[in-house]
Give the backbone structure.
Amino acid sequence: MKARYILFAASALGLAGCSANTGMNTAATTSAVPTLELAATGETVPVGTVARDAADDPAIWRNPDDPAKSLVIGTDKRAGLYVFGMDGSKKSFLPEGELNNVDLREVMIDGRKTVLVGASIRNDLNNAHIGLYRLEADSAELNLLGKFPAGAGEAYGFCFGQDSGDEVFAYMITKAGNVRELKLSFAMGVPNATIMREHKLTTQPEGCVVDDRTGRLYVGEENAAIWMYDLDADPFVPQRFADVNGRELVADVEGLALAPTGANGGYLVASSQGDNAYVLYDLVTGAYVNRFRLVDGLVDGTSETDGIEVMLGDFGPQYPDGLMVVQDGDNGNQTQNFKYVSWRKVLEALEGSE
């Protein structure tokens, strides 16, 4: 198979097939591993859906010209897509019905630099669809580019990947366990999505993220493991990256995010939903690094987190080294929302624990 990504260093990952469900009681399991405690710096306004599990997954767009005007896209999986400002205010809302995960990449469409936003559409529970949108940075609004079939099954997790030639791929994760790759094209400015290949995990996955530097897709099988797919390899089968072991990582494993450094270094960050924590792994070796929780501070802490996102870089005085956004499953007497975390605080906590 022709290489689509520039690969750098091979990590010490064990080969694996598909894992069976661990059968953990996620509500009762608590990790015994020491866990750092941090506080979030800010939060978004609550989403509109009341009395239901609603807020789910975020994506971050960093404004390189004015970082303080960067934007966060967040899903209300019962209703649609929000765009939030760095102060947590609602900038816009696009009603789309049932959806789940969201991601973005900057691409060229018909000669125009475009912030492309994608989401897993769940309005048809028997057939998955991808929604593609253009984020208008000046107005903070999303405009629909189209909705595209993504194979059989209920749409669930979703993420983008972009190779060294700037080709864009979408990864649809179905509730039944399918990990499906679609190639996107934009001939004459018209989007299209073509299914390329797929693999089926044994039990339910959701969170996914692609490291564009190394061509690796990470997928969380909620009660079993985090898997790594080498997108340059054929066949399309995963290696086990980390176990859901009830210690460092407690079922369900939900959102996944990257904090990349250098050619292939940095962290994979996972939401350990079963004990309300966030776990960091070394991207090169796969080794466990540390874990932390968000406790009450300037804003309330988080629990039962689904989606997470991390983006490094300057986001203004409160977030000088990067921004982490996490879904909060219990926002007190308000509906669910998203919390903003300064990545500098995470790094300082890691350094202080050494």
